[in-house]
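Methods: holo model generation. Sequences were used as deposited, without trimming of termini or removal of tags, and paired with ligand SMILES retrieved from the corresponding compound records. Each pair was processed once, and we did not select among multiple samples. The sequence and flavin-adenine dinucleotide SMILES for this entry were:
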Amino acid sequence: MKVLVTVKEVAAVDDEFEIDGLAIDDRYLSYDLNEWDEYAIEAAVQISEAREDVEVVTVTVGGPDTEETIRQALAKGADRAVRVWDDAIASAGLLDPATKATVLSAVVEEEDPDLILTGVQAADDGFGATGVTLASAIGWEWAAVVNSLDLDTEAGVASVHRELEGGVEETTEVDLPAVLTIQTGINDPRYASLRGIRQAQSKELAVQSLSDLGLDAGALDSPMEQTSLYEPETEGEATVYEGSAEETAGELAALLREKGVGEA
Amino acid sequence: MTVLAVAEHRRGDLRPVSYEVVTAGREAADATGGDLHLAVIGGDVESFAEDLNREGVDAIHTVAVGEEFDHGVYAQALTQLWADVEPSLLLAPNTVNGLDYAPAVAERLDIPLVTDAVGVDAGEELVVTRELYGSKVETTLAVDADRAAVTVRPSEWAAAEGHGDATIEPFDADIDESALGARVTGFQEVGGGDVDIGEADVLVSVGRGIEEEDNLDIIQALADALDATVSASRPIVDNGWLPKDRQVGQSGKVVTPDVYIAIGISGAVQHVAGMKGADTIVAINNDPNAPIFDIADYGIVDDLFDVVPALTAEFQ
Ligand SMILES: Cc1cc2nc3c(=O)[nH]c(=O)nc-3n(C[C@H](O)[C@H](O)[C@H](O)COP(=O)(O)OP(=O)(O)OC[C@H]3O[C@@H](n4cnc5c(N)ncnc54)[C@H](O)[C@@H]3O)c2cc1C
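and the model returned the structure below.
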């Protein structure tokens, strides 16, 4: 059995930053493994540990800089990695979920997995739609926002919980093969062991171009174009206390007392 | 242009976001002088349609298939309805269920999808506003297509009110049962523990800024000094540092205390969904751009490891 896990390196902006045109300058960005993907990787690794002959393959659409992040996934137990990149992708504008799904579909064709796990969303652009779009594109079943997963490969069914709003979970039986988008909290992602980190260095990390996947640059055509990027006007009218921690704490304490807090 | 907006219901009740999608849909339809159609699929569609018949709705298509949400039924019904109504814009709620069918519908119809919109301008060209990087920046996306799908963020549009005079039209969707590969078997309520954060007058709420489980001691000490209850953002619960029933937010509890003190919490939309109704919101965060300050009444931009012990000392 083969489990394919989508892995994205996401950017977070520093506390102070500047916008330059349609982008934030790289100096204000720090990069890391997407939080949701961390749980998807752990779910896949747990599946492989519970069964014989399970291969966990990660797939990332990302440049050479993302390899460090991909190695993290390998260090946590994924067996090998595919990274899709070429000049056309590097110079493409926005990769919307449909575009990513097109690229990922070609990888699915190549890899022929039995199960695909993605994160619910990427922390940076937060589309939250790539997994389900991919499922539809390849004609598989799916479930979004899965926070419990029990796989019965013999019956060909995944019993999942979908985390709905308001502390309610839906229990659903999903026919395999399926794409499941994994929610944080589904498991307890492991830290990579020193041994894992060492081994990750020698695991296969294959780079594929669009043409390797039988696609051309037309696959990246998107009707969406980013037209502006700005800091939202703060609607806030917060009174911000200034001064040392003692001073601000003192002012806040006075406010809280005024509201009757802490008056036993 | 014609807009087709989709209502959402669960366990017999329409969800409030349904009325917000009506408002967003009316705005988009108005921008081009078009009609607003609604789709309501499954459950007691007739009574849902009556409730949804608010000002500005032109037609409501009822699809009487099944009781609860089933993404396969939604995807099939909406692609058929789309062909029948021929709208230019599909609007769905950006909810857990919305994100379980809208991407599939868009893919099947081969139309672009923009999710989690906080603004939709459907004039000459469709321009969608959304947030990036945990709400720290906003971006506009121009969509160069005649037809598109957008999911709209809950609580961004006001709920539609008044009474409309929509025509209510049953739509006979032809559902291919053999293509339904996911079966909803039930619902589970996330178990309640001994503490009900929904009942607390004062919540001291802790987020990822606390860094380590051991550091929760300073939060508990503050809560003790204030005679308050400790709640948390999601990562604290995901890490297993506090039980699930302490989680505030979209998938946790909605709380409305007199005072909510957010400590090391950025103010992600899913968190804010659970606490924006608090009377007084205080934020302690060392990032002046953290979105939590947009909804806070009082704030301290500083290191929580300095401020929290100092605040506790004030009450000892
Ligand atoms: C479907 C779905 C449902 C979700 N449901 C929920 C939900 O119910 N509840 C919820 O909370 N989240 C929910 N989330 C997650 C949400 O998107 C955020 O990831 C989460 O709320 C972030 O938690 P946080 O603010 O504690 O962490 P972060 O966003 O990491 O913020 C940490 C904050 O701490 C500050 N900080 C760091 N160090 C210090 C310091 N020393 N002093 C002061 N400040 C410091 C930082 O500036 C930052 O603002 C959901 C997400 C999805 C996709």
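Residues 3 and 89 of chain B are 5 Å apart (CA to CA).
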